[in-house]
Amino acid sequence: MRAKANALTQGFIRCHDCGYLVKTVDHLLSCPRCNSHLHARHPHSLQRTTALLVSSFFLYIPANIFPIMTVNQFGAGDAHTIAGGIVELIDSGMIPIGMLVLVASILVPSSKLIGIGLLLLCAHFRWQINARRWTVMYRVIAFVGRWSMLDIFMISILVDLVDFGGIQIIAGPAATAFAAVVILTMFAAENFDPRLLWDNQKNL
Amino acid sequence: MHLFTKAMNNTNYDACPECDLLLKPAQPKPGEKVHCPRCGLLLSRPRKQSVERTFALSIAGFILFFPANLLPMVGLTVLGNANTGILISGVIALYNDGMEAVAIVVFLASILFPLVHLCLSLLISGHLYFNRPNRYLVAWMRWMHHLDEWVMLEVYMLGIIVACVKLMAIAPLKLGWGLYAFIALIIITTLLTSSLDNRLFWQRIEQLRKENKNAS
């Protein structure tokens, strides 16, 4: 079954950029329609994704430990971490917004790190899994990643607006680390090739 | 436009981008959706008058981009001092705080990439609308494809909402015209993404190139 279904085993390569199908026997290096490089699968998909994932994992630690912003009130500084900001929102009764930030800046990044890690393990060790379900997981991870930037945008607005004589909000070092985590995991998801999951299945 | 769909693909086959299943390309009518039978990916969703709509929405988005960026979005008054914010002032404030990297990311995702994306879709749909071949069409399409994910206007909107909720506790807020223009811009860009039919655009571009070659 597998040999029948896959385009690659049937002798076709799909262009990543424009979706054009090219015959493998033509040995073309670039797509005749859009000129982008042709690859049957993303080149070095697993290595690149692993590298990006490991670096974002290490950046995730400072992103959660250091303050993401500091509220200066008449000389007294009050540092907030990501989790601290959410607790404060929920304490002051803003439960739906607190939940939104909780999902966007804690649940999404951490489940993304775990999810991409699982996808990598699955592709590397050729686990026999329900490929359709895992592809859906990949799709969710790839879709949801950008929404974590919410925290960064919020800080840019707060830093800009709250700047009066006595009261001031300053962005903290965790903001850089967190932005880097979001961007690196987005690149990681982009570099992972879900077709590797399907290639490894013995019986489809 | 559907005449082109049949003639173009030289292999008469199609492959799913996420599971690599070899498929016979379906010929869906506008409004129908085609999913991959194996992995469930939405393969194509043709729209009525995709080129015309994309062209119109790109013009609208391009016009709205300027008020959304230049008019004050949110104003905050504390102890008689009023501060108003626009998109770029948040970037500048971050930059002055010594967060250069974050400032650049915010600038790219909320200002530069959306503008470039709008310009590209305006150029592409404009050329297709007037049937003008251009050797850069292919490059523009590829850039737009890669930029898609990094245009984060709707995420920025959520950021504004959360920031407003936090600020309401401190002082009264004033919403400005910039914010309304920004919301309109988000609606336009969302409609734009859904009206832009990638497959059709690529086919039209190839068609234009072939016509151009035959003519010359």
Residues in β-strands, percent of chain A: 5-15%
**Sheet with the most strands, sense and barrel status of chain A:** 3 strands, antiparallel
Number of helices of chain B: 8
Under the CATH scheme, the architecture of the largest domain in chain A is Up-down Bundle
Quaternary form = heterodimer
Binned, the helix content of chain A reads 55-70%
What is the mean predicted local confidence, pLDDT of chain B? 87
Overall structural domain count of chain B: 2
> What is the count of β-strands of chain B?
7
What would you say about this model in short?
The complex is a heterodimer of chains A (204) and B (216). Chain A is mostly helical.
Describe this structure in words.
The complex is a heterodimer of chains A (204) and B (216). Chain A has 204 residues and is mainly α. Chain A has two domains: 1-40; 44-199, Up-down Bundle (Butyryl-CoA Dehydrogenase, subunit A, domain 3). In chain A, 56% of the residues lie in helices and 10% in strands. Chain A has eight helices and five strands. Chain A has helices at 2-5, 45-65, 82-91, 95-124, 131-144, 150-161, 173-191, 195-199, and strands at 12-14, 21-23, 69-73, 76-80, 167-171. In chain A, the strands form two sheets. Chain A has a three-stranded antiparallel beta sheet with strand order 4-3-5. Chain A has a two-stranded antiparallel ribbon with strand order 1-2. In chain A, strand 3 (69-73) and strand 4 form a beta hairpin. In chain A, helix 2 runs antiparallel to helix 7 (173-191), helix 4 (95-124) crosses helix 5 and helix 4 (95-124) packs across helix 7 (173-191). Chain B is mainly α. Chain B has two domains: 1-46, Rubrerythrin, domain 2, CATH 2.20.28; 49-215. Chain B is built from eight helices and seven strands, in the order H-E-E-E-E-H-E-E-H-H-H-H-E-H-H. In chain B, the strands form three sheets. Chain B has a three-stranded antiparallel beta sheet. In chain B, strand 1 and strand 2 (22-23) form a beta hairpin. In chain B, helix 4 packs across helix 5. The radius of gyration of chain B is 21 Å and the shape is elongated. The two termini of chain B are 23 Å apart. The interface between A and B is large, with 66 and 66 residues.
